Amino acid sequence: MPRKKETITLSIPPGTKEKLEAIARSLDIYWGKDPSISGLIVAIAQQSVEVGKPFTLDSNQVNALQQAIKALSDAGRIGEAQTVITLLLERGNLDTAMRQSLLKQASKLVQTWRSQIDDYRQNQQPFHLLYENSQGRELLYTVRYAEPRFFERRFYLMIWCEETEDVKDSIPELPKLWHNRNLIFDRIRSIVPASGKWREEGLDYMKVQLHFRDWMVKSYQRREDDIEDEIIGDVRQVVRKVVNELWLIREVARYWDECVIVSPESMRDRLKQKLSTLCELYDIEIRS
Fold first, then answer.
1. Which string of DSSP letters, residue by residue, matches 104-144?
2. Alpha helices in the chain (DSSP H)
3. DSSP letter string, 203-240
4. How far is the C-alpha of 200 from the C-alpha of 208, rounded, in Å?
5. Domain ranges in the chain?
6. pLDDT (tens digit, 9 = 90+) per residue, 27-46?
7. pTM value?
8. Residues ≥6 apart with Cβ < 8 Å to 23
9. CA-to-CA distance for 35 and 202, rounded, in angstroms?
């Protein structure tokens, strides 16, 4: 049953309709191919978009916030310094030179995180890490092991942490990976030393057997985590230490039927869930 909608009548000066459509277009709010004024009004009412000019900062305000960034950085409060930079970049009316300067500062702050983490790793010093995920939720981890890893043209921080509650529901079938996290450096908000011992065993992992088929038999390039790699008949069999299921699933999805997860069954089930959801979204009937 279609939902009931309310209607309103607006009296607006000449030319206002075109201006509203331009705003809707700039915010990517459409009905079909045309910008939607109704959608724009709903978005404003729901406070999901903001309109109008960003607030303007005078030179004294900019200088004060720059000093705040420096003070926070010097105090080791890198996450808060990044928050101030983000505020200036997203909401301030800044000239090009100032924006470039702030972007460089943000890059240096990320390097500061990496330098601090490298020091902890070298000294085998556990640490508490405050992290803000992509949904804006702050998570506190007690890190016993950490190492940077490169995935898809970007460095990430892989950690082994004591906490597991935030992932039990998302990967219930993979308890061996509950202690591992894959973090983005610029979402780190704070780091302070923790008591206890460093984890010498490193990250947890699962041994996953993959079969590469067809053109991938010859074109597959061996990975650092591969512990077995041999061609058996028309299949290239690879056994890999997997520390994070996300990157494995993305790799397999990229190759379609040229790469198959053979074992363990729990990792196969993880991919089956993704495929099942995909079939539902595209109205594909799965026959048993």
1. HHHHHHHHHHHHHHHHHHHHT--EEEEEE-TTS-EEEEEEE
2. 16-26, 37-45, 59-74, 78-91, 96-123, 165-168, 216-219, 245-255, 265-281
3. S--EEEEEEE-TTHHHH----TTEEEEEEETTEEEEEE
4. 22
5. 16-45, 59-118, 124-193, 206-281
6. 788 887 788 888 888 888 77
7. 0.67
8. 40, 51
9. 53
